[in-house]
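Hello,

Our lab assistant flagged a job as stuck in the queue for most of the afternoon. It eventually completed. Since we weren't sure the result was trustworthy after the delay, we are filing this so someone can double-check. Below is the sequence as submitted and the structure that was eventually returned. Let us know if re-running is recommended.
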Amino acid sequence: MTGMFDVSRKIDTFRMATAQAILRISHTTRQRLDNGNSPKGNIVEAAKISGTLAAKKTSDLIPYCHQIPIDNVNIDVSIFDSQIKVIVQVKSIWKTGVEMEALTSACIAALTIYDMLKPIDEFLSIESIKLIEKKGGINDFKKSYSKITAAVLVASDTRSKQEDESGKIIIEKLKEIRCDIMEYEVTPDDKSTIISKLKKFSDDLKVDIVITTGGTGIGPRDATPEATKEILEKELSGVAETIRAHGQRRTPLSMLSRGIVGIRGNTLIINLPGSATAVSESLDCIFPGILHIFKMMHGQKHE
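-- returned structure --
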């Protein structure tokens, strides 16, 4: 099915795009502009106004573009010997990029200038409209990392490996980032057993990352957070709260999850809920950004 891309599971990140439009003008037109003799007024100010409006209205003009909250539009118009250059930069903090907003802005700004100068320049033309640069989004965090080893632990009194869905979702996500899966186990909702498994993964196998699923609720047998907290050396409360906040925007039940995140030795341990949907959304929220932690644990600096 064609149409808009579904970005509902993406996280908000800083986005920026810069686009350029170039118009070719005659020498006579250049002289008239230098003398302030444009037939329809100030082309620079008109281009800035129309370009700003166009960036905000892109989703109204291009059917498959999302409605994006625009944080800033900056338009620069420069007049050279035989050309006018329009540079547009658009910024937003949202789920998808703003390159179409920047291109649309540059296009409409150029068309505005064309409309204002066409009465005096029969050779007037728009020569190019192109994207110069785009930044932001998850791809900015997809750096190259050393090979990462992982273990997956499913805490459930009722599920077997054959019935498990959440653990398999985690495994698929880890494989996407080229993790080596060292262990995949299903264990009962028993605090001492979970502690034993977490110690085995971190102390004996020394895997880089352990992701658990299940046992994070408020049921009488839910004990994964208590087991995890007992063996952690450093807690990363910000990661856990980010997971909950991401989920809370999708379901009012996310706030009931008690999962925690932290470090034991050189192993990152992450508690995720038991629901397959919650697991999938949580993984979308933290990867690949969470992988930056391995550089920090080895004493490297933020870029």
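-- support follow-up --
The delay was a queue issue, not a problem with the job. The result is valid. The radius of gyration is 27 Å. The chain has ten helices and ten strands.
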